[in-house]
TrEMBL record:
Binds 2 copper ions per subunit. PANTHER family: CATECHOL OXIDASE, TYROSINASE FAMILY MEMBER. GO terms for molecular function: catechol oxidase activity; metal ion binding. Disulfide bonds join 101-118, 117-179. InterPro entries: Di-copper_centre_dom_sf (IPR008922), Polyphenol_oxidase (IPR016213), Polyphenol_oxidase_C (IPR022740), Polyphenol_oxidase_cen (IPR022739), Tyrosinase/Hemocyanin (IPR050316), Tyrosinase_Cu-bd (IPR002227). There is a cross-link at residues 182-199 (2'-(S-cysteinyl)-histidine (Cys-His)). Cu cation B binds at residues 326, 330, 360. Residues 199-216, 353-364 form the Tyrosinase copper-binding domain. The keyword Secreted does not apply. This is Tyrosinase copper-binding domain-containing protein.
């Protein structure tokens, strides 16, 4: 173990050579991601040559003829790809106006708590241009880092904590970025009091990527090491399925006392089933990873999250990864002794735990793997080409405390942003649950379960089983759609979906009957409730089960939270839409 550990961690030091062209020699080659093999696309620059000092960009104001924008993008991405957009375009979400930042709110035991998490006002805004990459930063797996890395990382975090309170790069200002963008401090510019929210939509991955990008650069600057790379919490691998030990040292600058004390050394439970058998929990975790990365997604929006444009209400729909493993880690670490699960367990406070950035580094890695590593026969279309996605923008302070405007389109490629991830095994990649054979019992139960139409709309406060008509007989390509899921945003909520579950052991997810998950991290928005929809692909599930010629399937919904908070408007099975045009690989 020690010698292997030594080899791994040697490679993990940030000063090690970039591994994009070398393959670590201690592992099976087929199990390593090879980001380097992917092709680079044409570079898209958002830079306007004027380095404008608060000059309004007419494109962002929607004053430019949108056909020109479409044409311009078409030249880069191929106009045909635009047909994959599910709705007509409106306008992209614009970066917030810092001078209009208001109080963020949270509910503490039903009482409203106002929080000021607004950033300092910047003098001028510069449109950010990605700097040329001279040396690739390699983010290490947090369980495999060297003592030297831990020392450096803590030194950087310590310096960040010591920066003056009004420095936008200091620890609390950085933590507050999350609060401001997630708990209702900003309104969408020009849209009255409509909240700006970066979760539960296609902005989830790009926003957090930019957030970590500047966090990492600030830390690097504070220790004079431009190669410094944040660690990632490798929770998708059994070897990373505990809180990374370096975060548990109470004397460390990366320590946070507000964590669930029962979970400090526990195996993470991505399914939140409460199962106490660690081996079963690991099996559940790998099944969840396989499901949210591969099995349950039909198109790019199922993975990335649903379109969120100017004027869209918050919460159009989280992607599979966001509502699955991502939420689970927040809730697993959040401290139940605190009124709102602080720190990681609530969006307003999540950025106050240094572990947040390690968690999100792995979330970011999932996006990168999904785009550049998962084979296209497993993952449908990989790119969103909608201009309202590509042109959405955010504001951040960079490592020099300069206020910059960044766009989603500049965040699509982590290599272009100058960082990659240490290569580690992906044990979930082929973790397809075993086929279910016996259908005798489910057939008997299905005749007694009520039809869905009789139950919906449904307040989900206990396990419920019902029948849903199939769209076609037999093993067709079908999607299970849960519509108008109305949630109380201030609560942790989660439920799992099973189809034709024969044994009803809801503590085990590693079976063909597990279809997917909905979950959310508590946060407060001006409107306490939000309505969303999710869809789950059933193709593989049918393949692994004997659905035969049945006209209906039996769906079981299993809430993992206590009490009320979720209402589901309707449920139906539809035929999978014809395959969206896949962008040509460039
Ligand atoms: Cu912005 Cu994990 O949350």
């Amino acid at each position: 173990m020690n010698s292997l550990h030594f080899l791994c961690t040697t490679l993990a030091t940030p000063s090690a050579q970039p591994r994009s062209s070398t393959r670590p020699f201690f592992a099976k080659p087929s199990h390593f991601i090879t980001h380097a093999r992917r092709n680079h696309r044409l570079q898209v620059s958002c830079n306007t040559s004027d380095q404008n000092q608060n000059v309004e960009n007419p494109e962002r104001k929607g004053k430019v003829d949108r056909r020109n924008i479409l044409l311009g993008l078409g030249g880069l991405y191929g106009a045909a790809n635009l047909v994959s957009s599910p709705e007509a375009s409106a306008n992209p979400i614009q970066a917030p106006q810092l001078d209009k930042c208001g109080v963020a709110t949270n509910l503490n035991n039903g009482k409203q708590l106002d929080i000021n998490c607004c950033p300092p006002l910047g003098e001028n805004i510069i449109d950010y241009r990605l700097p040329p990459v001279f040396q690739m930063k390699i983010r290490p797996s947090a369980h495999r880092v060297t003592p030297e890395y831990i020392f450096k990382f803590n030194m950087a975090m310590d310096r960040m904590r010591r920066l003056p309170k009004d420095d936008p790069r200091c620890f609390m200002q950085q933590a507050n970025i999350h609060c401001a963008y997630c708990n209702g401090a900003y309104d969408q510019p020009g849209q009255g009091t409509l909240d700006l929210q970066v979760h539960n939509s296609w902005l989830f991955f790009p926003f957090h990527r930019w957030y970590l990008y500047f966090y990492e650069r600030i830390l690097g600057k504070l220790i004079g090491d431009p190669t410094f790379a944040l660690p990632f919490w490798n929770w998708d691998n059994p070897k990373g399925m505990t809180i990374p030990p370096m975060y548990l040292d109470p004397k460390a600058a990366i320590y946070d006392p507000k964590r669930n004390q029962d979970n400090l050394k526990a195996v993470i439970d991505l399914g939140m089933t409460g199962n106490k058998d660690p081996l079963q929990v690991v099996a559940n975790n790998l099944t969840i990873m396989y499901s949210e990365m591969i099995r349950s997604n039909t198109d790019v929006y199922d993975f990335m999250g649903q379109p969120y444009r100017e004027g869209t209400g918050v919460n159009p729909g989280p992607g599979a990864s966001e509502r699955g493993s991502h939420v689970a880690i927040h809730v697993f670490v959040g401290d139940p002794r605190e009124p709102s699960g602080e720190n990681l367990g609530n969006f307003y406070s999540a950025g106050r735990d240094p572990l947040f950035y390690c968690h999100h580094s792995n979330v970011d890695r999932m996006w990168s793997l999904w785009q550049y590593f998962l084979p296209s026969n497993k993952v449908p279309d990989k790119r969103i080409t909608d201009p309202d996605f590509l042109n959405a923008s955010f504001l951040f302070y960079d490592e020099n405390a300069q206020l910059v405007r960044v766009t989603v389109k500049d965040s699509l490629d982590n290599l272009r942003m100058g960082y990659d991830f240490e290569r580690v095994d992906l044990p979930w990649l082929d973790y397809r649950p075993p086929p279910q054979t016996a259908r005798a019992r489910i057939t008997r139960t299905s005749s007694t379960a009520p039809m869905a139409a009789a139950l919906f709309p449904l307040n989900l406060d206990g396990i419920v089983r019902f029948q849903v008509p199939k769209a076609k007989k037999g093993k067709a390509d079908e999607l299970l759609v849960l519509e108008n899921i109305t949630v109380d945003t201030t609560k942790f909520l989660k439920f799992d979906v099973f189809v034709n579950d024969e044994d009803d052991n809801v503590m085990e997810l590693d079976k063909a009957a597990y279809a997917g998950t909905y979950a959310q991290v508590p946060h407060k928005t001006s409107n306490k409730s939000a309505t969303t929809s999710i869809r789950l692909k059933l193709t593989d599930l049918y393949d692994d089960m004997d659905v035969g010629d049945d006209d209906t399937v039996v769906v079981t919904l299993v809430p993992r939270h206590q009490g009320p908070g979720v209402t589901i408007g309707g449920i139906k099975i539809i035929e999978a839409p014809p395959k969206a045009t896949t962008p040509p690989s460039s």
